[in-house]
Amino acid sequence: MVEQGTHKPLAGGSNPPSATTPPLDALASLVVRGAGAAHISPHARLVLAVSGGSDSMALLHGAARAAATLRPGWSLSVAHLDHALRDGSETDAGAVAQAANSLALSCEVRRVDVARLARDEGRSIEDAGREVRYRFLEEVAPDGAFIATAHTADDAAETVLLNLLRGSGLSGARGIPRRRGRIVRPLIDARRAIVREHLDHGGISYVDDPSNEDPVYLRNRVRAELLPLMEAIRPGAIDRIGAFARLAADDDGLLDDLAAAELARRRGDGVAIDWHDPPPRALGRRILRLAIGGPAPSAERIEAVLDAAESERGGTLIELGRSRAASVRERQITLN
Q: Which residue segments constitute the domains of the chain, with CATH numbers given?
């Protein structure tokens, strides 16, 4: 919980919001529609992840409006993680808390030096920030509550393209799932431009984070350059990428089910995975990733394990990262 006070107004918006304006109703409808698609109960408890940006402020105000009208059974609270990546971030945190307070919602705020964490762990700032953010949300969300993030259709399309540019397989083509465990994304079908239009018409303030314009981050270049070009070449490209991602998710889920069944068969009642009759490589990769668990090792390490298991060589030990290893001997794979 943070102490409330007077904070610098957020950027964006021009008029004070009104609980009866059509834009709030429109945002509520978007949130409720997305919540229904994610199978969120009308009596659910939701922790809203709010950064202060346009998408998350749309989630905040849309969910609050929905809880007052369309979904009176919802119980809402707000969580904000200050990544301490730029001057003034603590002001943004205070403004989020102030917005939550104006809607009579409790707000949990935490500050983490993500840049230092990334340096200490030898990781990118994006990866470190993502992990600490979701860890924070899991910690503050009560048992049985959903964690709602404000990802939009634009975010999902960006993620698909980023994964393809990085050489991802089918799992990367899934983009951002509508729901994973108790993480839900009610705005995943909404376009960012529409969300901002509702906010501006409703006079709802939000933060424009300057780091979102920094071309040093590949996602920002995809957002600012690649996606607009694709929309210019083929109007509706973002929606079509989303449709592709949903089809890929269906295929990926089926292959995961097949891999799980094959893993159970090859393990039997033991610990080692029998590899005397190697499956097709595509299935073998999935079996190994499933057996190892997350975070998945690099593609090179997965291939190294498969090569060793399919060769006639003697015992081999392959490091998988995160203090994990695979021991391969006589076409048996044992994970440590």
A: 22-239 (3.40.50.620), 268-335 (no CATH)
